[in-house]
Amino acid sequence: MKLNDLRDNKGARKKRMTVGRGIGSGKGKTSGRGVKGQKARSGTPGILQFEGGQMPMIRRIPKRGFNNIFAKDFAIINLGRLQEAIDAGRVDAKKPITSESLRAAGIVSKSADGVRLLGKGELKAKIDITVSGATKSAIAAVEKAGGKVTVTVVAEAEVAA
After folding, report:
1. CB within 8 A of 117, min separation 6: which ones?
2. Structure-derived torsion over alpha carbons of residues 69, 101, 149, 93, reported in degrees to the nearest 10
3. Domain presence at residue 113
4. Is the pLDDT score of 160 beyond 60?
5. Longest C-alpha distance within the chain, in Å?
6. Neighbours of 37 (CB within 10 A)
7. Count of domains in the chain?
């Protein structure tokens, strides 16, 4: 095979249809755009939400809820998932576990406000873990296994009380 023999596969490149070249071509005169109006012109983004003057769908449907701009963005990890990582050897239970070590092991993804430990699953290993937040059930389960949880971020309710 030579370089000058290289060709695309048959049908790999489709020719663009020639428009506006007489009525015999099938796409003559208006070039398949119908007749007049905004959508027949070039350079228009179209009128996507315009519904002929009636109230648009986006304004008819009621809006619900809100976005809390003060909400914390925690990466969450369950005790069961942590135990699986310890069993697989991705996390060393004898060393202190931090959010950085969990991220390095690929157990949690990056988050703005740290890691929150949840109590779903069973923990058998004795661990010393430092997290930004933890549920009461998670703290109880870690302490039952003989470990220790250090929470770095103090919750708003605890500050008020």
Report:
1. 76, 77, 79, 82, 129, 131, 133, 134, 135, 138, 139, 142, 149
2. 150
3. yes
4. no
5. 86
6. 10
7. 1
Domain containing residue 125:
75-160
Report if residue 32 sits inside a domain. Answer: no
User: Is pLDDT at 137 greater than 80 in this prediction?
Assistant: yes
CATH number of the domain that residue 80 is part of: 3.100.10.10
Residue 148 CA to residue 128 CA, distance in Å, equals 5
pLDDT in tens, 32-48: 999 888 888 888 776 77
- Identify the helix (H) or strand (E) that includes residue 88: helix 79-88
Structure pTM?
A: 0.57
Q: Which amino acid belongs to residue 130? A: T
Q: What is the mean pLDDT of residues 105-124?
A: 88
